[in-house]
TrEMBL record:
Recorded family membership: Belongs to the zinc-containing alcohol dehydrogenase family.
Leader sequence segment: none
The protein, known as: L-idonate 5-dehydrogenase
Cofactor(s) required, per the database record: Zn(2+)
Gene3D superfamilies per UniProt: Medium-chain alcohol dehydrogenases, catalytic domain, NAD(P)-binding Rossmann-like Domain
Domain Alcohol dehydrogenase-like N-terminal as annotated: residue spans: 24-140
GO MF annotation terms: oxidoreductase activity; zinc ion binding
Length: 344
């Protein structure tokens, strides 16, 4: 079968790899669609991010959907032919954090397409993959393969919103409207936020944010002082979701946050220097949001019922044979949002 393997920055190859064999407790899945994530782009463009670097060839990809083609003989609750979204998260289940229900902090996590450990965890941009039964979540007949592949980024957004606590009636600011930021908008709207304002440096992401529920959008590149009116009276917003990973976006939002506002940092962009005096004086609550676990099941249910519609975020679909074009397109935020590849 074919797989998309990264060897070095900009060195992405389509290569033949062995077709896997499932054991009695596993499923063989034909991959149908896969979305290109920000981490995939970091591997493609730079060979990694931060201290995480490619040390050996690695199959990319973790946002995928497919159809079950073979079922292990000890599995009876799901059948071949079932279309599924695949959770790329495989916690060990035995460590301290798994036992406490914090599986996203598993000390022995195996997450598709990750160079965080060596040997690297091979990803899911391939024609076939063997998965555990716990990774398979059936999707509705009405959902396209591309939509089903969005379950993983939606799970990230759901986890971020869960980290913020109740949003009913809250005023929310989202800085950074890439796919995760836009999905946070959709999720916050579903969670009952009274007002959602979104900032970004490009027009297309802001247009997408409006289509999934933002009340107002601000292009910071064009109108850098547009948030100033929200700073009156010690601030306007109850919650900030920082999804850009940009220190200027995070610190620039402090003036428009109310005292005791909750800040959820979702974006990763390197180390930041924070104005601690402001955090102390306004009693901000700074929280991180990393990956997800139980939210994947919720994401699939929301997609199946179209309670969250991700179609406005899917900007381009390429066959995997055109993977270089797909990655180049995905890297241009002014012209694309979520780029999905098909593996038929």
């Amino acid at each position: 079968m074919h797989a998309l393997i990264i060897h070095a920055p900009r060195d992405l190859r389509i290569e033949d790899v062995p077709t896997p064999e499932p054991d009695d407790h596993q499923l063989l899945v034909r991959i149908r669609a896969g979305g290109i994530c920000g981490s995939d782009l970091h591997y493609f463009n730079h060979g990694g991010f931060g201290t995480v670097r490619i040390k050996e060839p690695m199959i990319l990809g973790h946002e995928v959907s497919g159809v079950i083609t073979r079922v292990g003989r000890n599995i009876s609750d799901i059948q071949a032919g079932t279309r599924i979204a695949i959770s790329p998260s495989r916690p060990c289940g035995a460590c301290e954090y798994c036992q406490k229900g914090l599986q996203n902090h598993c000390v022995d996590m195996r997450y598709y397409g990750s160079a965080m450990r060596t040997p690297h965890v091979q990803g899911a941009f391939r024609q076939e993959i063997v998965i555990d039964r716990s990774q398979a979540w059936p999707v509705s007949d009405e959902l396209t393969d591309a939509e089903a592949s969005m379950a993983e980024p939606l799970s990230v957004a759901l986890h971020a919103v869960n980290r913020a606590g109740p949003l009913l009636g809250k005023r929310v600011l989202v800085t950074g409207s890439g796919p995760i930021g836009a999905l946070i908008v959709a999720t916050a709207r579903r969670a009952g936020a009274a007002e959602i304002v979104v900032t970004d440096m490009n027009s297309l992401p802001l247009e997408c944010a409006s289509r999934v529920g933002a009340d107002a959008t601000v292009n910071i590149a064009q109108t850098p002082d547009a948030l100033d009116r929200y700073a009156i009276g010690k601030g306007w917003f109850d919650v900030l979701f920082e999804a850009s990973g940009n220190a200027a976006a995070l610190c620039g939002a402090f003036n428009v946050l109310k005292p005791r506002a909750i800040i959820v940092q979702v974006g990763l962009g390197g180390e930041m220097t924070l104005p601690i005096n402001v955090i102390v004086a306004k009693e901000f609550d700074l929280r991180g949001a990393f990956r997800f676990h139980e939210e994947f099941a919720t994401a699939v249910e929301l997609l199946n019922k179209r309670l969250i519609d991700v179609r406005p975020l899917i900007s381009d679909i390429f066959p995997y044979q055109e993977s270089l074009s797909a990655f180049q397109t995905a890297g241009n935020r002014s012209t694309s949002m979520k780029v999905v590849m098909t593996f038929d």
